[in-house]
Design a protein that fits this description.
The chain is an alpha/beta fold. Helices cover 41% and strands 12% of the residues.
């Protein structure tokens, strides 16, 4: 109906898909749909977010041209169409993006032309939770409060008066009804919350603020196969001190009754909980489910536990503390410069699997841990190639990614070519042969580079020949020899696991993205010799994440190379290894020599 209104004044120019209707569709499918309904002249471009790198893009309606939605494009549209710019771009926002995220240039457009960039939006929502997010976004977004929405919902209660015309969404009876219903759903919490309630009631019965739990590390207890006995004892303690005392027992019963009466499942909401055996069985199921030891019983208790599992929607719980959630969100925003994580195109996705009889047994020995073995496999196709000339002719650096790094959101999907797929799919569990082939390929690559060197770059120039790594990745890097490095995920290589690695004899040092040296057996302290102080390490840091310490090292290498060498010669590494200890390594040396720091500055 809305698409049938083709005039600029009445039709919408934004589609927000909160429920994933277009999840399996490409932006070209969306473009064709818009073109079929609006015609080829109504809109000129379709705004979208590239799923491979989460960047803002615009696809031309009448061609295959796909350009970046940046300041240059925005200025071009303003100069060409002025205030009618919003009538020429259709904004498609899918469910991978939080609705409160500002699309670029919304505020600039609003201040300049006195109207919102979104003329009218259609929001496709699936359930109460989606609808609740729309309401929350009204207070978060700086421009959406002035945007008109057309929201279509199925299964709306017939008794509620919806009203006609444009209304304030926060004042509608429907909105409040759905919001209250959503809050009722949240009351269920999750298994951890109801379990902690039991622990709190246990403390109440002992008049104590603290609880000493014998199950400190559930993972280790499972591996040692001792968790069952401890759960039985733990369950007995809770049953005795919670259900055995009138006050805690009544509190627990009232909490359960208040939660269950809000369930949409009639068998749960109508269940009589006054029977003592029922509550005892439920307490036992809660404790066992908390530690993932409960076996489905096929009766009402499955419904109870499913409801108490809350919005996770399954019996498997993945819990994070609030601080962990904030750190996770902050790191994602830093790495992605976005609030969503992109998905590779199907042709770039690599699916691998293996089967073991007993996973826990396999993890006891590092060499038998197939998941770790698989994820540590290096790809013999370089993901980044850098050339540089720092006074000794053109040199080449190749970074080879691990399989785990390829599964991260630090790379571009286009790196996953058929050759990369074939490399890992042909792996037949012969680990020594795989690493022998990797070493041979890297050495051949290095020989071909040395044989084909030509002076094509200027002195002290760094040139990125190719790179499929996104900005600011979190990584650890292993130096094998000059020009050959393996890049893995953060903490993938550490001093404990390196002794079990098939390339342990070839690994000379390990460092992370900040420049901290995690392992070193070279003993070299020279900017011209391979090791953690070698200039290549800081060229890599500069290319991948623009680290300040890398910029300092490169600048000093160019203009004060003697200072660097003298500082390294006198540095005892007590404060740590690597130029990340810059102020100890450089400044203390300057003080010792009685030289002002300004004399060393570039």
């Amino acid at each position: 109906e809305e698409m049938g209104k083709s005039t600029c004044e009445t039709s919408f120019n934004t589609l927000v898909d909160l429920c994933g209707i277009f999840k399996l569709s490409t932006i070209h499918d969306v473009r064709d749909l818009i073109k079929n309904h609006f015609g080829s002249e109504r809109f000129k471009f379709v705004y979208h977010i590239d799923p491979s790198n989460n960047r803002d893009r615009v696809l031309c309606i009448n061609s295959e041209n796909d350009a970046q939605y940046d300041e240059e494009f925005y200025n071009y549209m303003c100069n060409t169409y002025g205030s009618s710019l919003r009538d020429k771009i259709f904004f498609f926002v899918d469910n991978r993006n939080v609705i409160g995220k500002d699309i670029p240039f919304q505020l600039v457009y609003q201040r300049h032309y006195g109207q919102p960039l979104f003329n009218k939006s259609v929001v496709l929502a699936h359930d109460v939770d989606d609808f609740s997010r729309i309401w929350q976004a009204m207070g978060r977004s700086r421009t959406m409060n002035e945007t008109k929405f057309s929201i279509y919902k199925s299964g709306i209660l017939g008794k509620i008066e919806i009203g006609r015309g444009i209304q304030d969404i926060k004042k509608q009876e429907l909105t409040r009804t759905l919001y209250v219903r959503n809050c009722d759903c949240k009351v269920a919490g999750n298994i951890s919350s109801i379990y902690l309630t039991l622990v709190a009631l246990h403390n109440l019965s002992h008049e104590s603020f603290y609880y000493c739990d014998e199950i400190v590390n559930a993972f280790l207890e499972k591996m040692e196969k001792t968790i069952s006995k401890k759960i039985v004892f733990h369950e007995g303690q809770l049953s005795r001190y919670v259900l055995g005392n009138p006050v805690p027992a009544q509190i627990f019963l009232h909490i359960l009754m208040d939660k269950f009466k809000r369930s949409s499942n009639d068998s749960v909401s109508g269940q009589d909980l006054t029977a003592k055996n029922l509550v005892e069985t439920l307490l036992s199921d809660i404790v066992n489910q908390k530690f993932e030891q409960r076996v489905p019983s096929g009766d009402i208790f499955d419904d109870f536990i499913m409801f108490l599992s809350g919005e996770q929607g399954s019996l498997m719980e993945i819990s994070y503390t609030k601080q962990q959630e904030k750190q996770k969100e902050k790191q994602q925003n830093k790495n992605q410069n976005s609030d969503a994580m992109g998905l590779f195109n199907r042709k770039n996705q690599l699916q691998l699997k293996f089967e073991v009889d007993n996973y826990f047994e396999h993890t006891r020995v590092a060499e038998d841990d197939l998941s770790k073995v698989f994820l540590n496999l290096p790809c013999s196709v370089p993901i980044t190639t850098i050339t540089y000339n720092f006074g000794s002719g053109q040199q080449t650096i190749n970074l080879y990614p691990t399989l785990q790094f390829l599964y991260s959101h630090h790379i571009q999907g286009s790196f996953m070519t058929p050759d990369v797929h074939k490399l890992f799919k042909n792996f037949n569990s012969d680990v020594p042969k795989f690493y022998e082939d990797f070493v041979e390929v890297t050495k051949q690559e290095q020989r071909s580079v040395i044989g084909g060197v030509n002076q094509t770059i200027d002195e002290y120039e760094i040139k990125v020949e190719r790179s499929f790594i996104l900005p600011n990745p979190m990584y650890t890097i292993v130096g094998l020899e000059k020009g050959i490095y393996i890049i893995g995920m953060k903490e993938q290589f550490n001093v404990h696991d390196i002794h079990y690695h098939p390339l342990k004899d070839s690994m000379k040092y390990v460092a992370d993205e900040m420049g901290f040296v995690l392992f070193d057996k070279t003993g070299n302290r020279s900017v011209d010799s391979f090791g953690p102080y070698f200039i290549e390490q800081y060229i890599i840091m500069e290319v991948l994440s623009k680290q300040e310490v890398a910029q300092n090292v490169i600048e000093y290498y160019r203009k004060h190379k003697g200072t660097l060498e003298r500082a390294l010669h006198k540095y005892n590494e007590k404060q740590g290894k690597g130029f990340v200890c810059w102020r100890f390594l450089i400044n203390e040396t300057a003080k010792t020599n009685g030289v002002k720091q300004s004399d060393y500055r570039a």
